[in-house]
Backbone:
């Protein structure tokens, strides 16, 4: 099938492209390179530099005929979304409406959407399944939930089948080392730890060690980005086979604390990785772990690369050459 992958030059997008290529799909990357990098564009791909805020550019590209659009071109820093919601409303919501309207104009049927565990907010039970209440605590999560609600209408009124994939904490890099681009100004835990290990950042700030968890630090469900990418291909297959939309969690179902990851990173990299305990980050829940049984049932999907050893080793494989 012909796939248009929005944000395909980014961290998650480039891994999704690899899996779409491996599945035999034709891949065109549409990316404004605001956070993605040309280093992540593979020779087998077509590349179009463009912005989802530019309707005409989207429409002109989709006129060429596509079977599926995969949308990974969103801003994703939850903390920033609380400071500049206008940036997130514009790009994440208005931008996605541009994408959907261009799909309607050019008869593109399938839409794979990068949603997020952030739609759930503070968990009322764990592990979190898809029936869990959705009360996002940050504007980023709100934008993802709003788009999911719009998708339900485009399914009903325009026959666009969508897969909303609620990622938990994406981490790690391609085990074959094919993705080399570093994230620009990362805020997520593992790339921050890697920057400290590589001497690109002075120290790790541990955002609170007084949570009601085994070692007092936050627990999250880290899922390898290749596992996520495989889930995107499986979701497209599901929509094609069943002519139906779906919303599923993609998580490892394992919880790791900040200190557990830090300890593994020190062991694997052999670097000291200095860290200081600071105040909690507002809005951070103590623990977030996915229930991914639905993805297993509908997609036959299970995380295979999401053990902490693989997450850290594959990340260090990309950061080590940048050691100062
Ligand atoms: C993980 C843990 C922090 C950085 C974010 C987005 C969410 C989703 C996943 C896309 C927490 C701690 C972190 C640091 C730290 N993104 N931490 N020091 O907040 O769970 O989720 O990524 O869908 O929308 O919000 O990820 O990596 O920021 O934090 O102590 O420098 O690491 O407190 O416990 P988070 P994170």
Residues:
């Amino acid at each position: 099938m012909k796939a248009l992958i929005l944000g395909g030059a980014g961290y998650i997008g480039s891994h999704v492209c690899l899996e779409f290529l491996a599945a035999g799909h034709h891949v065109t990357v549409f990316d404004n390179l605001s956070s993605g990098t040309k280093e992540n564009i593979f020779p087998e791909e077509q590349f179009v530099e463009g912005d989802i805020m530019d309707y005409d550019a989207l429409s002109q590209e989709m006129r060429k005929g596509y079977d599926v659009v995969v949308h990974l071109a969103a801003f994703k820093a939850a903390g920033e979304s609380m400071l500049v919601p206008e940036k997130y409303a514009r790009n994440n919501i208005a931008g996605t409406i541009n994408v959907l309207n261009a799909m309607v104009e050019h008869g593109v049927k399938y839409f794979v959407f990068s949603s997020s565990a952030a739609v759930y907010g503070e968990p009322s039970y764990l592990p979190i399944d898809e029936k869990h209440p959705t009360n996002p605590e940050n504007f980023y999560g709100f934008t993802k939930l709003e788009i999911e609600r719009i998708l339900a209408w485009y399914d009903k009124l325009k026959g666009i089948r969508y897969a909303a994939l609620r990622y938990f904490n994406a981490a790690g890099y391609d085990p074959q080392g094919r993705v080399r681009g570093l994230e620009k100004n990362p805020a997520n835990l593992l790339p921050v730890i890697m920057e400290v290990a590589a001497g690109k950042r002075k120290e790790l700030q541990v955002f609170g060690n007084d949570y009601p968890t085994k070692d007092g630090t936050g627990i999250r469900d880290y899922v390898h980005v290749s596992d996520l990418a495989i889930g995107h291909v499986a979701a497209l297959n599901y929509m094609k086979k069943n002519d139906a939309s779906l919303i599923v969690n993609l998580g490892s179902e394992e919880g790791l604390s900040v200190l557990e990851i830090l300890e593994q990173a020190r062991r694997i990299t052999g670097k000291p990785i200095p860290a200081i305990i600071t105040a909690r980050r507002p809005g951070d829940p103590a623990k977030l772990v996915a229930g991914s049984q639905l993805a297993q049932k509908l997609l036959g999907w299970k995380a295979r690369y999401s053990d902490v050893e693989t997450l850290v080793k594959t990340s260090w494989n990309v950061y080590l050459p940048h050691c100062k």
